[in-house]
Amino acid sequence: MIRLIRIILTSFVALTLCCGICLTNPAPASAAAVGPYDIAAGSGLAAIIGRGKLVVGMELKFWPFEYVNEKGDPVGFDVDIARQIAKELGVELDIRDMEWTGLIPALQAGKIDLIISGITGTLERAKAITFSRPYFTTGLCALVSTKKAPDMATVAALDDPSRIIAVKTGTTADLVASKRFQKAHINRYKEETACVQEVVSGRADAFFYDQISIAKHHKQNPDTTRALLTPFTYEPFCIAMQKGDFDLWQWLDMFLDISKANGTLDELRRKHFGELLH
């Protein structure tokens, strides 16, 4: 019996030593661990600070969010947000004006650091890029032709084979119209102004876009349009960045939290939207 116990104890000690050796052996050089500081050093945030420049993509045709003034300078709500971000980072701001459909490809290719251009955060887009928390919330509304649809009271009436809806290519309005208004004819245009002109001329029944823009276009064309300003979607405008950049994403969310808490975002809304918000 004593001999059996000795054999068991000897086997246990040998097994323990073997496990200890296995657990304490360092990993091969080829599988060296990557620490959090190594990850941070390779982040977009570190790259922006290191080069001293923040590159932001916008389509400068989206008043009052981003557009060009009479001097040829970029101005607007989104432009001011980009300037605040650059200021807090201690870097200069480089705004790249590009077509709407080219913004996401440019971000994915690393040609720009961020998109700040009234881009709506959606689950589909979030498969390809990362979004900050919303900095502005709106919804799709309809600019309706008084000539072609004089009695239309709700957007639901547009889901009809006799109706024509104008949308800007690649926008959430384009996606929503395709999914929820399948009976109507959807005409797509590259420019927002072309969509408005279709409604003003009576060639289209309605144009779908964000609430601020629809209010603006009706104000500019009061005799030929009506504005249905009750949003029929939820549109959170977010800052877009490349996938997988946790440090930059976290920094931007903190920036937006602080900007909301200290009143900066409210001040910018009053500056750029004014009576359009009422």
From TrEMBL:
Keywords: Signal. Its main location: other. One of its GO terms (cellular component) is membrane. It is found in: Cell envelope. One of its GO terms (molecular function) is ligand-gated monoatomic ion channel activity. Residues 53-276 form the Solute-binding protein family 3/N-terminal domain. PANTHER family: ARGININE-BINDING EXTRACELLULAR PROTEIN ARTP, MEMBRANE-BOUND LYTIC MUREIN TRANSGLYCOSYLASE F. This is Extracellular solute-binding protein, family 3.
